[in-house]
Amino acid sequence: MQVKIPENNRKFSQPNNGDLSGNIYSTFNIDLVTSPGKIKVSPSTLMATSSADNSNLGLPGAFAYFRANIGGNDASRYWALCDTAVFQTINPSGSWAEDTEAGNPTTSFDDSDMKTWDGVLVVSTASKIVYRDNTSWNDLVASGVSGPIILEVGANKRLYFTDSGRYVRYHTASSGGSTGARNAAGTIDLGQEYGITWLRRSATRMWVGTMAKRKGEGVVAEWDMSDNATEPNAIYHIGATGSWACAVVNDNPYVLTSDGLLKQWGKGPSGFSEVGRLPSYITKYMLDSATLTSQSGRPVHRNGMQVVDGKIRISINAKLDTNDDNSLENMASGVWEFDPQNPDLGIYHRYSPTLANDGSVDYGQSVIDGAGAIFEVKGDSCSMLSGFSVYTDNESTVKHAIFYDDIGGTTHKRGIITAPWIYSEGTRENWSKIITTFKKFDNDTDAIRLKYRQSKKNHLPFIASIAWIDDETITSDDTNFQYASVGDEVEVIVGSGAGTAAHIESIEGPDGNGSYIIALDEAVPVISAGNQSKARINNWKKIKTISSPPESVDEKDIPSTSATPAIQLRAELRGTGDNPEIDQFILISNQSS
After folding, report:
1. Of 529 and 426, which is predicted with more confidence?
2. In CA terms, which of 20, 107, 185, 329 is 20 to 30 Å from 536?
3. How far is it, in rounded angstroms, from Cα 104 to Cα 125?
4. CA-to-CA distance for 189 and 169, rounded, in angstroms?
């Protein structure tokens, strides 16, 4: 029996509907689009600035690009709305500074929003809308509205905003781009049974997302933005409590429902139809989160779903409940991606935030405290800005930060890709060999670690708090280590060293204090003694580490001890730049019975 991943058609598929479908079960920091048909590691997502630099910086919930004169320097700048403060910079991957100009919106909160409109920068607070021109902040709507006040600019150049969670109103821009008085006009009412969650424009429509207040079925409203309207033109039920966010591609809205389905308008007879799904489809946490009023408590922020480089990117907090130890092995937090031009690829994990601006602490956090906005950047050293609240240790300390993807950078990066279960054509199979073809490495530090398992193991996986004795030894008081074995994988998912996966070389304990000491099979370069983290322990076994190979093909026997009905394969990619780049895996086996 011979199995190729991918097949010779070079097509990948991550359907996220179990561990048997497609040819990808899970991804972490994986790039499947820049070299179609091949597997690469995505650029590192580095921290530009954080609440450690300025305590006023909260979870970034909106970004914008706007020209302003600050300190005599008149220049185009990137702006970030970070809870109760607004930050700006000329260089998105450089330092950011708080805008302290008089009148700045210090009363904004996590449901506030920000847009550029009619030559000004507009920000909503809990009870009013303000704007910044080139030099100063002023009131736009000083009273008479209440939050959440969501903003959107229509194709007709009007500013649309929500009021009291049920109304959509608008302002008409004055001629000539004047920043003078603007008059409020026009209202549609979505009713008391819904709360508005997002606004998005297309060429001729305004789309309005909602959440059902009584856990019924949410709707998406379609409005042609006509004058003197009192209700939307059409209402579409979406088969879920509501929707978190929306992105518009080629004039078609795509919405992410509260139970994890990505649906496209016009794809089927019922208005919105499924084109993709997250692994957490209909998890209890996503359903419970559907009633949350705070953006910071939702899995996806309304500004956390944007089109970047023609792809839909979705910033996700993937924890299943308030206990962060409950997380799916195939759903990491971070930025996920969907390509409307290649929907069969599915939604896969593209980026995860790191704890520094140089890759010196970790390779990407799988578990976070909050997911904020995404913003496309063009013509700079990055393609995307994103906002996250991340843990700096084993989840006892939170840092809010602005991140950028380090395209073209030299930061060492790591990613993981896992295949679905592969079953024998008979009763059992002798899984004998794996052949890997790849682009020859450019650096001595580039590597591919191949792993496998032939069954799932009772009590695994589990997530444990760990402390680092040194860069290849950890200690933990978690009693679940009694179920771990030599050879099992220790995948660090939060804190120092996150994004790497070593294997257990030895386990000692528990001692008189209930502590275990676990030696790993390799040193983790970014670790220092005393660092704290959390790790997922699972029964992946190492086949081989491919490093500094003389050729672009590697063949290795699988150290299987018995014939089994199934096998699952996994690869960890380590490198810089465009390395490593995997062409194909070929699994060879012989039928046993």
Report:
1. 529
2. 20
3. 11
4. 9
CB atoms < 10 A from the CB of 163, how many?
Answer: 20
In the chain, where the domains are located? 2-10+424-591
Distance CA 289, CA 475 (A): 34
Using CB atoms within 10 A of its CB, is residue 116 exposed (0-12), middle (13-18) or buried (19+)? middle
Residue with tokens 């997250």, as numbered in its chain: 278
Amino acid at 123: V
Structure tokens at 270: 């019922």
Alpha carbon of 197 to those of 207, 292, 513, 525: distances in Å? 11, 11, 49, 43
Rounded-to-integer distance, Cα 441 and Cα 446, Å: 6
- Over 50: is that where the pLDDT of 181 sits? no
- CA 137 to chain centroid, in Å, comes to 33
Check pLDDT > 60 for residue 180: no
The number of angstroms, rounded, from the C-alpha of 436 to the middle of its chain's C-alpha atoms is 29
Angle at 301 between CA 411 and CA 110, to 5 degrees: 105
What's the helix, strand, coil split of the chain in %, to 5? 5, 45, 50
Q: What is the reported pLDDT for 178?
A: 40
Average pLDDT score over residue span 127-138: 90
3-state secondary structure of 177: helix
Whether this model's pTM surpasses 0.90:
yes
Label residue 110 by pLDDT band (50, 70, 90): confident
The pLDDT of residue 524 is 95
| Measured distance CA(86)–CA(139) in Å, rounded | 16
> Whose CA is closest to 301, among 114, 125, 116?
114
488 residue type, one letter: D
pLDDT of residue 378: 82
- Measuring CA to CA, which residue among 481, 530, 489, 532 is closest to residue 507? 481
The secondary structure element, H or E, covering residue 491 is strand 489-495
Residues 85 and 58 sit within 8 Å (Cβ to Cβ): yes
